[in-house]
Design goal:
By secondary structure, this protein is of the alpha+beta class. Helices cover 35% and strands 19% of the residues. The strands form 2 sheets. Strands 4, 5, 6, 7, 8, 9, 10 and 11 form an 8-stranded antiparallel β-sheet that branches. A 3-stranded mixed β-sheet has the order 1-2-3. Helix 3 crosses helix 4. The longest helix is centred in the first third of the chain and has 16 residues.
Length: 284
Amino acid sequence: MKNYSKLILPVLFLFLSGNSLSQIFSDRDKSECNNRFAIAFEKNLSEKPIGDIIAEVGKTFLNTPYEAHTLEVADKEQLVINFSGLDCTTFLETTFALARCIKQNKTTFDDFKNELQLIRYRDGKLDEYPSRLHYFSDWIFNNAKKGLIKDVTKEFGGKPIKFKVNFMSENPHLYKHLKVNPEFVEEIKNQEQEINKREYYFIPESEISKAESRIQNGDLIALTTSDKGLDIGHVGIAVKMPDGKIHFMHAPLVGSKVQISESSLSDYVKQIKKHTGIIVLRAL
């Protein structure tokens, strides 16, 4: 299929959803989504375990450019879909939503939008900016509550950890919506306090190699961080290579593209000082 993206700018569509807020996507995004569903049908992916579907769908995004702040394109919170540029979280969410659609044999663009909203927002309800699951530890808690994932970290010998998140409420000037809506800051602060009450589990970086044999293809991986006021510094997808080793598929940083790490997951985590360990999530 020819790529005309350099010849014409994609048309952005704004649609009113059931809660009177809009959705933002392009004609190219809709086409890219439907193309992946067509490939999944040809390969009969729906018959595979959900983890294998996640890994296969994730690989269709390899070499997609990293793009920061893709969800901050409008003045009000909206369901933003962008297949052309991804950060680490939108790569994971988009892949996960597509895989869930394929597994359930719900393969229309509307099905995908519904799954993405379910995954991205607290209790699946898109409202104002605070309804988005901004902190990934909150994303884990809420999506486990929905029955979409299971946190298997403790089963792998994970150690207890409590987060002390406050970065968003302490730095509202860094967030477009918080700068212009100071009333949202208090809501975010309340969410942070709820996160800080919970106990999570993580596998310290020094112990990841011992747990790698239990990590499955397509597991969702969250990297804990030492950055002050934050919980998770990076996310991606576990990929089992032909030699049986687990590598890390992710959208790394500005100027790069979606890729699979050259080194194993455990070695990758050790390469960046602020990474302290991992949380392993299994799709249900």
